[in-house]
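dumping the sequnces here before i forget
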Amino acid sequence: MDGPPMDGFGRLADTFFNAEVAARYWPDILAGVWITIGLGIAVSIAGLAFGVALAILRAMQRPWLALPIIAFADIMRALPPLVIIIVFFFAFPLIGISMSAFMSTWLALTLVLAAYAEESVWGGILSLPRGQSEAARSTGLTWGQTMSAVVLPQAFRVALPPLTNRVIAVSKNVALGSVVALSEVLNNAQSATSTAGNPTPLTMAAAAYLAIFIPAMLFARRLETRMQWRV
Amino acid sequence: MTAPPILELAMLELVGLRKAYGSLEVLRGIDLRVHPGEMVCVVGPSGSGKSSMLRCCNRLEESTGGQVVVDGVDITKPGVDINTVRQRIGMVFQQFNLYPHLTALGNVTLALRKVQNKPGPEAEKLGLAALERVGLADKAHAHPAQLSGGQQQRVAIARAIVLEPKLMLFDEPTSALDPETVGEVLKVMRELRESGMTMLVVTHEMGFARAAADRVIFMDAGAIVEEGPPAEVFGAPKHDRTRAFLARYTGGH
Amino acid sequence: MDALLTNFFNLEVFRQVLPFLLQGLLTTIGLSALVIPLGLVGGLGVALLATQTSRRWVRFLVAVYVDTFRALPPIVLLIFIYFGFPFLGIDLPKLLAVALGFLLNNAAYYGEIFRAGFLSVPSGQMEAARSTGLTRAQALIHVVIPQAVHNVLPDLLGNSIEVVKLTTIASVVALPELLRIARDAQALVYNPSPIVLAALLYLALLWPLVRWLSRLEHKNLMAR
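..and the predicted 3d for all of it:
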């Protein structure tokens, strides 16, 4: 849209969808995308693994194990993730534990996801009739075999919808890393916006997040339907 | 005192009623008159269109042809205020459909308060009277989950009669009940009939239809196959399909 | 140990900044009291559109809206609104930008919850209400919505806790809620104790709710 005066739509396009700005800052956004995806995957894997481990420990029904796990899960679900990231990044160095922005964000989100995953899997375990583990034990399976072969497979099926939702919700919080200058998509887009004097990089950041998480959501939905069918 | 039956205005009249889902015809031109104070029972195999016909009578389902005339008014005409009409047509469902978040009295008085805008005390008085009629005044403050199936269905009947309908539609009112609570619901229905209510009842209770109905309709494949006094339809059915259906039914018991 | 006490739990700093942080906590609560009801109303609207219309294109648009705003991190949305709009010459006040961002995000999340609630109410409820002469709107208000809400109360509570936690992102547009005040205080006293104190205040506010939610959820699971 050249020539004066620019109409409303042209102005909107020129501001938020400026091709020239987009071309110039595309590499920055792309670099951020890889950080976002990498961190998201790292958080998902570590958080799920840790959370499932906690749920199994809690299922051992020892109060000295269960109480700290419950407290951990409660605290990590009650604290805003942004607060945890900021504590790790700004406060821990002062007691001699320095963490990079990447490390702070990863650790904070991993702990948060672990807390939610523990609750979901534990909820799944609770939902099973007692007869399930009794039947397994009555056939001579050990506690560990009962957990891995009978209890957990069923618990996961109950826990799957909340788990997939939570993995996506927590992974999205990678964007919070921008507050501690983690060079993920949003942070790079903000810097680019201020150097370019044009918010097109912010549009690109939004588009990039959609491009990452809409497929993730669709995949999660497919996974859920497939698991339901096998019940 | 009353006009001769032939001149009497029907309370409900279906004229060439049709209902189709795409190419699937579930009602193929139903003609039926129900007179004031009459109880008509509709029997037939499942999928014969009985429930569809009933649900067209208060337009919970929209017909695709023909007329539904209630108390002289064709309710299928555009411009009819269906919500006013429905207060004159009570309906009782197979699954009761009581509102689980309200007490028995709350269920019975909701339409009084929200549709007829009756003040609270008056609505409660009417509601209690209706519950009294079905023998459940003592359960006024119970929630549906605290009631047996038979009690729930009686509350559902009270919810309909409290609006003083001129016509009552029953859609298999005892099919979802435990056998031991069927009787109490049928008793309430008999009393209702004795009080002069006009009733159209879709049912699988052949014994009830035979003993209490003024007329029985046998439907199959979206059409009325046979109709007449219960003694005739049950005792000496004219059509093969009626005989086959009744044989299966009585044989099955 | 000493480093921990002076840097994390510095009572002198606590005493100094507590009044300001309490002010921030009030702002956090006030902000939540603004955006949660907004989100609930928006979500109810979204769910009504998704379940109460037979128009395919309406359902499609609602699904696109919900998926988009569930995929977009709220902080990206907020920064887009707050830092992007001024380039169009539209200067949104902070509170308005935050409220708008939260509304767009929350309506999608609450909408999904309410939708599940509507689907949990049998269709016979609407039919029974209509058969006694209630209009569609009356039947929704008095019969369907109360049951739908009741059936998803734990999810509504859970999402509302998430929203309170999410108000921390308003700190990036310098809205003086609890986290923002704590960070400003930290810069001022050059000691991270204010952030730790803020964390403790968040815990005090939200831990009881989290506990309550856990009990509701476990009760529901065991009732299956």
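The first strand of chain B starts at residue 12 and ends at 21.
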